[in-house]
Amino acid sequence: MDERIFLSTPHMCGKEMAYIEEAFQTNWIAPLGKNVTEFENEMCTVTGAPCAVAMSAGTAALHMALHYLGVGRGDVVFCSSMTFAASCNPIVYEGGIPIFIDSEPGSWNMSPVALKKAFEKYPNPKAIVVVNLYGQSADYDKILELAKEHHVPVVEDAAESLGATYKGKMTGTIGDFGVLSFNGNKIITTSGGGMLLCKTEEEKAKIVKWITQSRDPARHYQHTELGYNYRMSNICAGIGRGQLTALSDRVAKKTEIFEQYKNGLSDFPVDMMPVCDYGIPNYWLSCMTVRGKNPVSLMEALEARNIESRPIWKPMHLQPYYKDCDYFMHDNDVSKSIFETGICLPSDTKMTKEQQNKVIEILKAQF
Ligand SMILES: Cc1ncc(COP(=O)(O)O)c(C=O)c1O
Predict the structure, then answer these.
(1) Boundaries of every domain in the chain
(2) pLDDT band at 161, cuts 50/70/90?
């Protein structure tokens, strides 16, 4: 059997162990420690975010953003439909009601047209969760204009888009809050982890208190607010510090991978995910839609040669759990048709050019 080619796996750069060893030597295994503080500071330097809070997962960061914004029982929250369930599950944790918004065909991200329709029916949502899909920013000018008009805060789910920009700004810093994920398949990983990018020290202080069980400053254990156990460990943060030094290399390699697919498949009935000129993606996953053929047959052909690929996220409005939630389409159901025709191609940064050529040849042979 040929060596397996993966979708996207952890790619260590070699600097991670030094940070972990330092944590061991100083016995800052847990809780907290220098790596957590420094990882947050270094992320602020890289992204330009004023403040950052390292957490156990991107999902936790989304949860805390919505908690901070006061989402509660019965509150409506708008969310991109084409995403991973982690984008909207925290709305439900807080008792809110997710309302799903379709994609626009030009970026696959939240459609301002569909968002406008949602505002006509629900003029006072508590928040909007906007996802930057597969490493490309949504078109924020249009979304933020609508959000401002209705005085609604925006949570930017940048779990997949660390290193990508929108009009020169790093994604994750555009909304009122930005969410990053460092799970194993992301552009950088801490094995599991996430970060909330916020604007002020006051926000950060509140959130840090909540995610460390909301202990009041008293000698005994005292709690006046509900707490969570969501802080990142000092060991994970050490991995993150090493990984962050390689972010620009990872983006460069992911960009090369996308270009190689684009060139290699240019004569075939496929369309790479459109790239918008308002920003620069990090190309986390190279995705495409297929004309006149079921993408499952392509995935099966790749799997037969020990190559991993995946379907596009199944939109949330098509998920059994969320079937009763309201949904606003762009014109026709854009996210559904991308799901039905789309495929995520192997985008592992350790994949060689030869391995990628093999993927391309297998795909071509299917047409
Ligand atoms: C768009 C999106 N949002 C949120 C998450 C959740 O992040 P985590 O797995 O770190 O909780 C992920 C990835 O898993 C994601 O792809």
Answers:
(1) 16-244, 247-364
(2) very high
The C-alpha atoms of residue 117 and residue 329 are separated, in whole angstroms, by 8
Mutation probe of ligand 1 site: the residue of 7, 59, 189, 191 with most atoms within 8 A of C-beta: 59
Atom of ligand 1 nearest to the CA of 194: 10
- Could you give the CA distance from residue 58 to residue 180 in angstroms, rounded to a whole number? 6
Q: Return the CATH fold of 16-244.
A: Aspartate Aminotransferase; domain 2 (3.40.640)
Residue 30 banded pLDDT, cuts 50, 70, 90: confident
How many CB atoms neighbour CB 245 within 10 A?
15
Q: For residue 156, how far is its CA from the centre of ligand 1 (angstroms)?
A: 12
H or E stretch at 24: helix 16-25
Choose which CATH entry (3.40.630.40, 3.40.1110.10, 3.90.1150.10, 3.40.30.10) describes domain 247-364. 3.90.1150.10
Does residue 31 surpass a pLDDT of 80? Answer: no
Atom of ligand 1 nearest to the CA of 183: 10
Residue 28 has pLDDT above 90, yes or no: no
Distance from C-alpha of 163 to C-alpha of 351, rounded to nearest angstrom: 20
- Is the per-residue pLDDT at 8 higher than 90? yes
- Ligand 1 centroid to Cα of residue 362, in Å, is 30
How far apart CA 72 and CA 76 sit, in angstroms, is 9
The whole-number pLDDT of residue 32 equals 80
Interstrand relation of 154-157 and 194-198 (parallel, antiparallel or unpaired): unpaired
What is the tens place of the pLDDT at every residue in 60-92? 999 999 999 999 999 999 999 999 999 999 999
352-358 average pLDDT score: 98
Query: Residue 309 carries which side chain, given as an amino acid letter?
Result: S
